[in-house]
Design brief:
With 123 residues, the chain is mainly beta. Helices cover 0% and strands 48% of the residues. The strands form 2 sheets. Strands 2-10-9-4-5-6 form a 6-stranded mixed beta sheet, with no helix packed on it. It has a 4-stranded antiparallel beta sheet with strand order 1-3-8-7, with no helix packed on it. It is globular and about 40 Å long. The termini are far apart.
């Protein structure tokens, strides 16, 4: 399985970014997709998840109303649209996949991670 995150960068507070994650080596349409993030010296935390069909999504409280997860099952890509970015959103963002769709996803539920994409929000 390969997870290729992209789209990070440096943005001013209040700005927007769209992250992408291209997945290969697995049947994408049979995997629920997730975004996590890890800020310096902090634990990796859940950001958002999306069902295989795209018909259900869930967000961490800090992401509600600002972030939108979506997926393109024809392209094997999951997206994270981030608006109203804050300096506290500065982190490495990772995508991942799972056959389960837990109510409270934890980093420990996933076996391996890609390299992620760095998001830096300046004040």
């Amino acid at each position: 399985v390969q997870l290729m995150e992209s789209g990070g960068g440096l943005v001013q507070a209040g700005g927007s970014l769209r992250l992408s994650c291209r997945v290969s080596g697995v049947t994408f349409t049979r995997r629920h997709m997730y975004w996590f993030r890890q800020a310096p010296e902090k634990e990796r935390e859940f950001v958002a998840q999306i069902l295989t069909t795209g018909l259900d999504t869930k967000y961490a409280d800090f992401a509600k109303g600002r972030f939108t997860i979506s997926r393109d099952n024809t392209m094997n890509v999951v997206y994270l649209e981030m608006n109203g970015l804050k300096p506290d959103d500065t982190a490495v963002y990772y995508c991942n996949l799972h056959t389960l769709y837990p109510a409270t996803p934890q980093s420990a539920d996933f076996r391996s991670w890609g390299q992620g994409t760095q998001v830096t929000v300046s004040s």
